[in-house]
Amino acid sequence: MANEKIGETNMESNERLQKVMANAGVASRRASEKMILDGKVSVNGKVIKELGTKVSSNDIVVVAGKTLDTEKKVYFLFYKPRGVITAVSDDKGRKVVTDYFKNIEQRIYPVGRLDYDTSGLLLMTNDGDLANKLMHPKNKVDKTYVAKVSGIPENEDFKKLRLGVMIEGKKTAPAKARLLSADQKKKKALVSLVIHEGRYHQVKKMFDAIGHPVEKLKRETYGFLTLDGLTSGDYRELTHDEVLRLKSK
User: Fold this and answer.
1) Which residues are in the RNA-binding S4 domain (predicted)?
2) Domain range holding 197?
3) pTM (2 decimals)?
4) What's the total number of domains in the chain?
5) In whole angstroms, what is the distance from residue 82 CA to residue 116 CA?
């Protein structure tokens, strides 16, 4: 089908067509050259038979009836503020995470989600394969949350969190939980919770299950990634090594 996509490549602007095809995994460069000479490749609807043709990420390349994904893949670590929706648009006009990426040409989207009133680390990318891989339950990416909760959990409460609690008829996976600080006067506590699941409102529901509702929540780590050096609303591009580590999970 003409709209089926194949491959992906982090191409720079104006690269030779056969190189783009090879980088996307279509075929070797020599085999790609033969496909071009055989009239099996079109750019923006025009069949190309010249090997010197150059294309950019804005061009639509179709190889044997399948569209080549030529958009450069980008990866960002974003410190999501509270009061921002984890979405690319909102029909009610509320602020969304992509509002912070106005100067980014690529059509990026969040990996997973953070609640409207939750702040912290969120990955943004246009790499659908990596996003799906990271969100798949089998990959078990550890995520660290710091929660301000009502009341002060006791050792027995932490034991329940570590062993798993029942949420809507299903037990959560074992977690790491510890007390960071306690305010005896205000009856509030800061608690660290590390989980690898991503069920809807999971952290809040886990604390509800032990009788200590969340008042404020922040995600501080995602796997090996942290918020170091960023303030709320900031983002940075992931390094090449960081992307490779994520892909190797």
Assistant:
1) 15-76
2) 142-222
3) 0.76
4) 3
5) 6
